[in-house]
């Protein structure tokens, strides 16, 4: 047997955790109260909230549709030469793709029932997909994996997988999505405060809590694989990871905020920015800060960059 139960790796442990935690169902949330709450959002607030939700709705669909080549690329690697078991990781990703489908399902239902639309494009205009890497680009990443599988070169496969995991788990999930959750938290809290309530859009918050729990596993697994690939090919860190991180920093962390006006009174974008820097540092630390040339200390490098601009 390829799977040895007595030798369970990180991906297998996360898969087992996912079996226990991942039993929630988007259909089980009652959305009536959320519908009522939604009516009390002003048009500007609705537009701003929908902008973030649209990024998620499209993004969850994009990650669902582009994950399969990761499994195929792992399968094309010589398992016995790798510092981790590619089969256990394939099992993990099989679970992840189901979870991403469920996240898409949640947003699809929520748009239909609460927002009364299936449109995302009007809310995304001028938004994040026009500023640096977005989930739209995951289709190119998937194509790169398929091309590397075709050529079958081990080092190329590791490098391409490294870039793919960094894009998907390292940037999209660990940075972009988590920035989105922080944004939801603030918008919902500020709205509840204004209305003199403990919580608004309660079902949304509960269901998003489940999505976040799933994503925490996806991110942890992604970081672990990024470290394993660095074990297999140490130069992948400075050849692939670092330039991708640099691009993200340039396009997002150092770029001007995309929303000039915040309809939610008291919204604190700077607080979110600081948290995102910490998330990036966490990823770097997990891979091994001393493996990096420039981004071992994210905050210091950012300050250097800002001083130079
Ligand atoms: Fe997701
Ligand atoms: Fe995910």
UniProtKB/TrEMBL annotation:
InterPro entries: Ferritin-like_SF (IPR009078), RNR-like (IPR012348), RNR_small_fam (IPR000358). Pfam families: Ribonuc_red_sm. GO terms for biological process: deoxyribonucleotide biosynthetic process. Gene3D superfamilies: Ribonucleotide Reductase, subunit A (1.10.620.20). One of its GO terms (molecular function) is oxidoreductase activity. This is Ribonucleotide reductase. It comes from Natrinema saccharevitans.
